[in-house]
Amino acid sequence: MKVRASVKRLCGFCKVVKRRGIVFIHCTAIPKHKQRQGFSTIAEAAASCVHLPPPPPASGSASAAAFAE
């Protein structure tokens, strides 16, 4: 399946289908004509990944007790 910004029918057998707000082209004659409009959601998810700092050490650990003395 090709992912494109602009999809169009490539032959007379191509059908335009819209599902969940995404435009698809499905061809019954030539499967190579299959297309989807949009962009890769995996790339978007990786770009918007939020990195959190590590949690502070627990107060009941042995290393915290050593620093307190």
Automatic annotation (TrEMBL):
Key words, A-Z: Ribonucleoprotein, Ribosomal protein
GO cellular component: ribonucleoprotein complex; ribosome
InterPro entries: Ribosomal_bL36, Ribosomal_bL36_sp, Ribosomal_LSU_bL36
NCBIfam families xref list: rpmJ_bact
GO biological process: translation
Domain of life according to the entry: Eukaryota
HAMAP family tied to this protein: Ribosomal_bL36 (MF_00251)
Extent of the signal sequence: none
Molecular functions (GO terms): structural constituent of ribosome
Similarity comment text for this entry: Belongs to the bacterial ribosomal protein bL36 family.
Species name: Miscanthus lutarioriparius
Entries under PROSITE patterns matching the protein: RIBOSOMAL_L36
A Pfam family hit: Ribosomal_L36
Record protein name field: Ribosomal protein
